[in-house]
Amino acid sequence: MVSGVLGSGGSGERQKLSLQDVAELIRAGGCPRVLVMVGAGISTPSGIPDFRSPGSGWYSNLQQYDIPYPEAIFELPFFFHNPKPFLALAKKLYPGHYRPNVIHYFLRLLHDKGLLLRLYTQNIDGLERASGIPASKLVEAHGSFASATCTVCRRTSPGENFWADVLVDRVPRCSVCTGIVKPDIVFFGEPLPQRFLLHVVDFPMADVLLILGTSLQVEPFASLSEAVRNSVPRVLINRDAVGPLAWCPRSRDVVQLGDLVHSVEKLVELLGWTEEMKDLLQRETGKAGC
Ligand code: CNA
């Protein structure tokens, strides 16, 4: 029972929510449209470094790539000057090098249960797709390696062509004009994919917003966290408090700090989905862990 949580009755302050309250709301059918925003943190348990974690993040470990400063690797002027650092980084993310983990499968379970309104991801590793979440439920806000575009004549090509070159350390060239081909990953300053516009309909419809593994530092993605209605619980599951949930919290925010795998497993347990989760993991990974 989530007494004192479902509404204020128009008088006074709403009671603060806990992770358990949100889990009970979902269990009770009170949140049929779960909206999710994720970032690089959800893939660190798969072995892919995030950007900003001190020590382990990409930004702390880019010396090997011969770039003037970390962000240069995702900047077009630098890519035109020298595409090799980005291509070397891309090669590491080749599909199949990494596998989805328990967090991706938790999101897949949300979808299987008909609760996932949409998953907005900043990640470019493709692990949401690999976990079995259909493309229609995904907004890959910073693009993906599924397709590529010539930087000169704008001819598009399938991601497979890009990989064929990158895997043998060859700079991908357009077969028509010989321009450099770039995968459809959004670099700094580039427009986001058209599908990002879905946020205009999705966010006002959400019953709960889950935010997992992101520093909420990259715009316009970060500001989506403010686009749900004020009455909608926002649940941040992350190592640290970030973005608007840290500097401009709302009364129905829940901030669950700590390790993501641990927190997601706790949420799964509170939802009463532990057995289903084990079954799904066993089916998908062949073992009962991530
Ligand atoms: P970020 O800025 O590196 O933030 C990651 C957040 O996750 C930080 O707040 C971390 O503290 C937190 N975090 C990391 N691991 C854990 C963990 N195990 N438990 C709890 N919290 C954890 O990354 P953002 O996604 O916010 O930044 C957006 C960038 C990152 C996008 O443009 C991505 O394309 C880019 N990126 C993507 C990947 C990927 O596709 N896997 C990897 C690295 C960077």
Automatic annotation (TrEMBL):
Keyword entries, A-Z: Metal-binding, NAD, Transferase, Zinc
EC annotation from Swiss-Prot or TrEMBL: 2.3.1.286
Deacetylase sirtuin-type domain span: 12-274
Swiss-Prot/TrEMBL cofactor(s): Zn(2+)
Catalytic activity: N(6)-acetyl-L-lysyl-[protein] + NAD(+) + H2O = 2''-O-acetyl-ADP-D-ribose + nicotinamide + L-lysyl-[protein]
SUPFAM superfamilies in UniProt: DHS-like NAD/FAD-binding domain
Residues that coordinate or bind NAD(+): 40-44, 50-52, 122-125, 214-215, 238-240
Binding site for Zn(2+): 150, 153, 174, 177
Keyword check for Cell division: no
Family: Belongs to the sirtuin family. Class I subfamily.
Protein name as annotated: NAD-dependent protein deacetylase
Lineage: Eukaryota, Metazoa, Chordata, Craniata, Vertebrata
